[in-house]
Amino acid sequence: MKRLFKNLTFQVLTAIVIGILLGIFAPETAKMMEPLGTIFINAVKMIIAPIIFLTIVIGIAKMGDMKKVGRVGGKALLYFEIVTTIALAIGLIIANIVKPGHGVALVQSDAAAEQIAQYTKGSAEMGFFDFLFHIVPSNVFAAFANGEIIQVVFFAVLFGFALATLGKVGEPVVDLFDRLAEVFYKIINMIMRVAPIGAFGAIAFTIGNYGISSLIPLAKLMASVYATMIIFVFVILNIICRMYGFSLWKYLKYIKEELLIVLGTSSSESVLPRMMERMEELGCSKSVTGLVIPTGYSFNLDGTSIYLSMAVIFLAQVSDVHLSIAQQITVIAILMLTSKGAATVTGGGFIVLASTLSAMHVIPMAGLALLLGVDRFMSEARAIINMIGNGIAAIVVAKSEKEFDPKRLEEATSTKAKETATDSLAS
To answer: What does the pLDDT look like over 185-227, one tens digit per residue?
Structure first.
């Protein structure tokens, strides 16, 4: 029994259940728990930029072959584009079949209109080329301070290239970074000990603030989105896993703690450092992990892609707007561009939706009001699918580059090895 209470999975799951119950039966008290979730996520974000920077720099510097670095990045981006396009297409197809927007009344309050106006303003400032310009930081220190992941990745790649060209002169720096990386991973393990408290605070606030009753009118949309994401994972991602010779189920079992933390916090960033560590434990090289995982947080948003495509069709159905096949293909094309910036701004999902609707000039913006109440409840699913997809992408790229150790995968996914790792973390 003592061993069970020390298990992080059990602790997080228990915290989530308690948070949900508190949100249902004492919503006012539950709303006061928000700082617990915010502090935990901020604590993780505090070390994301340094860990990403160190991991990428060390990986590139030790890889030596600069052409290989470019090849890994190219393969990752190609994989991201193919898989997210499939996710968009599946979302459109299922939304057309299920028709979650039929029968839903379009009602807009003044408060909702004000919120939509803010998102619309944000969408006017966001485009694909703006996202490209955003990749290169004008101030490196600001990129670290603001937690701009894609900017940190860009600078780390340049730094790693430069360090690799120095040869023996750069070896002391690589050694120092190696030691620093160990310190930061130790810090993240310390922070993860309070993950149950963070998950409790975040889920309690969500349920207490938005209420279970807000889900009833849009239950069909939520069920459709969740079902589509499940199909995407266990069909599309499972096929990819089988093609590259590893088990989806074993992979999911291995990252179950991270899945629960994301479920509780609604943020995939809360486990980004841990996912990088997990991928190395599963057999991916440090260099591939360092390039693929952080980049995937901006370019490989499978869950977000499914949600966005289904939300657009849902809003069209609510507004009684018939979209032709050509228009729906246009939706995919627009979302392929606009979705790439979803992770770089707060409220990115809504801003992307607003920018997509603005670009189409077909669906009324007022329909966004319907999604305000349930968006938070679907953000958990988006974050979880994004995280699962990024981990699989790292394994796929590592295997294609022969930068993968199957023995480590077998050892890591064995029950005994995982229990030992969990007990070690909890103690």
So the answer is: 899 889 988 999 999 998 898 888 877 776 777 888 889 999 9
CA pair distance 231, 234, nearest whole angstrom: 5
Q: Are 40 and 200 in contact (CB under 8 A)?
A: no
Quick check: 354 and 119 in contact, CB under 8 A? Answer: yes
Amino acid at 402: K
Place 415 in a pLDDT band, splitting at 50, 70 and 90.
low
The residue behind tokens 């050509």 is 326
Domains defined for the chain, CATH in brackets = 2-426 (1.10.3860.10)
In tens, the pLDDT along 122-166 reads: 444 445 556 567 788 899 999 898 888 888 888 998 998 889 888
pLDDT at 122: 46
Q: How far apart are CA 100 and CA 107, in angstroms?
A: 16
CA-wise closest residue to 52 among 135, 175, 172, 155: 155
| Residue keyed to tokens 């948003």 | 301
Residue with tokens 């485009």: 127
Residue 81, Cβ neighbours under 10 Å: how many? 14
- State whether residue 161 is helix, strand or coil: helix
C-beta separation of 255 from 275 below 8 A: yes
Rounded distance, CA 417 to CA 427, Å? Answer: 16
Radius of gyration of the chain (CA): 21
The model's pTM: 0.81
Please provide the distance, in angstroms rounded to a whole number, between the alpha carbons at the two ends of the chain.
14
Check residue 7 and give left, alpha or beta (phi > 0: left; psi -120 to 50: alpha).
beta
Amino acid at 348: G
**Which residues have C-beta within 8 Å of that of residue 327, sequence separation ≥ 6?**
360, 362
- Residues 178 and 58: beta-carbon distance below 8 Å: yes
In terms of Cα–Cα distance, which of 356, 326, 321 is closest to 339? 356
